């Protein structure tokens, strides 16, 4: 049986391919993914300028699309930010 982490990785791949076309996300697909899958963690997903900026930041190879490798950078960046909030919260509540 897959572990929690293995399940997470599989979900990450499945979610990416649910929105991607030919293994890449264009601007519109990235926006839809952010609206549907990151609405609680990413408050700027409804702001078109923020989507453009995120797209530009993620597109490491400059082809105007976000591939899986580039998408993972977004997930990692958000996970790091969330882990910092989690640690701060745990410190405050004394756990
Ligand atoms: Ca790219």
From TrEMBL:
Q: From which lineage does this chain's organism come?
A: Eukaryota, Metazoa, Chordata, Craniata, Vertebrata
Q: Which domain of life is it from?
A: Eukaryota
SUPFAM superfamilies assigned: EF-hand (SSF47473)
Q: In this protein, which residues make up the domain named EF-hand? A: 46-81
GO terms, molecular function = calcium ion binding; calcium-dependent protein binding
Gene3D superfamilies associated with the record: EF-hand (1.10.238.10)
Its transmembrane ranges are: none
Q: Which GO terms describe its cellular component?
A: cytoplasm; extracellular space
Keywords assigned by UniProt?
Calcium, Metal-binding
Q: Which residues form a coiled coil?
A: none
Q: Which organism is it from?
A: Austrofundulus limnaeus
In the UniProt record, the gene name given for this protein reads s100a10a
Cross-referenced PROSITE patterns: EF_HAND_1, EF_HAND_2, S100_CABP
Q: Which SMART domains match?
A: EFh, S_100
What is the protein name stated in its UniProt record?
Protein S100
